[in-house]
TrEMBL record:
Pfam families reported for this sequence: Beta-lactamase
Domain of life, source organism: Bacteria
Beta-lactamase-related domain ranges (all copies): 41-296
Protein name per UniProt: CubicO group peptidase (Beta-lactamase class C family)
Originating species: Flavobacterium aquaticum
Length: 325
């Protein structure tokens, strides 16, 4: 397993031919990516770059927003704070933020743990994505309802309260700097959004493929990371700790309570886990194939931009499979 050096633009590569992949299918993949408003695309194999392309005026040095794919950065940071015994995901949130962090009755607020925020099962009203106190009202008991909601960002406040420093400073020292990412957190309209270049997204994907280990350092506790990429509750089996999971029997989508039969991305390997964000920001991780795939860019369908999972994933995987199989 290759890990690119910290503080260097050097990154070893590997040829299509050395992997016995299908060279003739690469250009159709790239044409599709460009057509679908992609800005940056990378495929790693065993940590080395096999395909790296930039489109539509984007460059290797340009930054772009991760949108909700960055939720996985938050989940990872929570795991680090827990392994340092600064917090516990099974402890109620009010122990860190104080009572009254929601507008729920106290007995309902005290049901909510960090684990509920990690798994989208807080039960907080999801009518508004804007996380302000008046909106954080009771809808269901914690643990009884899965609903994709931006209240996850309260986990950043838990990290700040439990570590005694800002979330960004803790994230930078414990995660970002250790794997050589660039990037920054920017206050978006409704929550903090991470921005970086495409290679930094690939670095995090490589950390994720190695279950939280970078070179010889276990940055994220492996037990916690394995929990992150496993079904976290029995309502939406395709969701871990802010990671999306392929290959389950059914799934739910942001913005609704319908349960759909099958995998979230039928064309992708069943073992795949993914960081997914609005406008089709993606990190796909497939450990058995030793591949990490990153896609950054505008929405593949500007007329109907998705919040997370979209039909784009299945189409893209059809093109990827033609190359790698």
């Amino acid at each position: 397993m290759y890990f690119p050096p910290i503080g260097s633009t050097t990154w070893e590569t590997k040829t299509i031919e050395s992997l016995d992949w299908n060279r003739s299918e690469v250009q159709p993949l790239l044409d599709y990516l460009e057509l679908k408003h992609t800005k940056g695309f990378i495929i790693l194999h065993n940590g080395k770059i096999v395909i790296e392309n930039y489109f539509n005026g984007h460059t290797a040095n340009d930054t772009w927003q991760w949108n909700s794919a960055g939720k996985t950065l938050t989940a990872s940071t929570i795991g680090i704070a827990q392994q340092e015994n600064l917090m516990n995901i099974n402890t109620r949130v009010s122990q860190y933020l104080g009572t009254g962090w929601t507008s729920e009755p106290l007995e309902k607020e005290n049901l909510i743990t960090s684990r509920h925020l990690l798994t989208m099962t807080s039960g907080i009203n999801d009518e508004s994505d804007l996380v302000i106190l008046p909106n954080l009202t009771y809808l269901a008991d914690a643990g009884t309802r899965w609903s994709y909601h931006n209240v996850f960002q309260k986990l950043m406040d838990v990290v700040a309260a439990s570590t005694g420093q800002t979330f960004e400073n803790y994230f930078n020292s414990k995660l970002k700097n250790k794997i050589g990412m660039d990037g920054f957190w920017n206050n978006g309209v409704i929550y903090k959004i991470y921005h970086s270049n495409t290679r930094s997204m690939a670095r995090f994907g490589l950390l994720a493929m190695n279950k939280g280990k970078w070179n010889n350092e276990q940055i994220i506790n492996q037990t916690y990371f394995n929990e992150s990429i496993s079904t976290s509750q029995n309502i939406n089996p395709s969701y871990g700790y802010l990671w999306w999971l392929n290959g389950k029997f059914n799934f739910m989508l942001p913005g609704g309570q319908t349960s759909y039969t099958g995998s979230i991305v039928p064309n992708a390997p069943a073992e795949m886990y993914a960081a997914m964000g609005a406008a089709d920001q993606r990190i796909y991780v497939v450990p058995s194939k030793k591949i990490v795939i990153v896609r950054m860019g505008e929405a593949s369908n500007p007329a109907n931009p998705s919040f997370a999972v979209s039909g784009f994933d299945n189409e893209l995987w059809e093109k990827i499979n033609a190359v790698i199989n």
